[in-house]
Amino acid sequence: MIPRLHARAHSPREPLAEALGRPLSPNEGLTEYTVVAHWPGLDYYTPDDEQRTWTSVEWAEHLEDPYLEHPFAASPDDDRHAILHLDVRLHPDDRELTGPEWSETAHRFARAAGIEVPGAAEHGWRWIAVQGQPGRLDLIANLIHLDGTWRIPPADILRRLADEARRIEQDLNLIPVRTGTTQWSAARTVPTASAQLAGVLTQLADEQAGPLATVRGLVEHTAYRIARQPGVAGTDTAHRLELIARRLHAIQQDLDATAAHLAQPRTAAAPAAARRTTHRSP
Fold this sequence. Notes:
This protein is of the alpha+beta class. The protein has 9 helices and 5 strands; from the N terminus they run E-H-E-H-H-E-H-E-E-H-H-H-H-H.
C-alpha cells in the first residue's frame, strides 16, 4: 500500500475526475460503493441521506462550498489552494477490499493527515474518499475549516501517512510495500550505495521541507499575487507561473519515483557455474 500526496490545488474537480478515471458528470450519481467515506459532519448538513444521490459535480461543489462561505480564508502563504488530494494504491497482487475496509482505510488516512479529529463529528474539514478504480483510493479534502480557519497539515504528514499505511497493511493482511512475493523476500540482496543516493533524491522531492517545494511555493505565491493585478499581462504571466509550478511538481514526482526505485533491494546474480575443462590424455 503506497500513499501519495499531491500538490495542493484550488479546485477539487480535477482531483475528483482523476479519482474516478473519467470526467465529472451532472447526471451520473455516485453511490456509497464509490464514495466510500466522507467527513462525519456531512450527516448534520444533509438529512435523510440526501448525499446518496449526489452526482460527481455535486460532490465537487460540496468540496468547493468553503470557498464561498469564507471568501477571505487563505493559507499562511496567502494563497487559496485549499484542496488536499491523497491517493493510495494497493499492491497488484493484493486481495480485493470490501466496502467497510475501504471506508476504514479512508478514515484512518484522514486522521493521519490531520483532517479528521476523533470526537468532533460535526466540526471539522470537508473531505470525501473515492474508490473509483481497482486497487485505488482517493481522499480529497478542503483545508478551510467550518469556522473559516485554514488547516495546516502536520509537518511530518508524509511520515504519518507511510506509518499508517504499514499499520493498515498489517491489520488487513495486505502485501507490505517493498516485499512483494515470498520469492522476492527470500532472494539474496546486494548491499549498495543506491540507498544513500535515494535519500538525497527523497530530500529534494520532499513535499513539505524540500528545496523544490520551497521554490514551487514561491512560484505559486507569485502567480497568485500577479493574478490579482489588473490587466491581461498580469493574467498571462500568472498562468505561465502556474505552468512552471506544475512542471516543478512533476519533477518532484519523478525524483520521488526514482528514489523509490533506487531504494529497492537488488537481487544478486547467481554465480556462474564453474566451467568444466576436458583433460586430454597425452
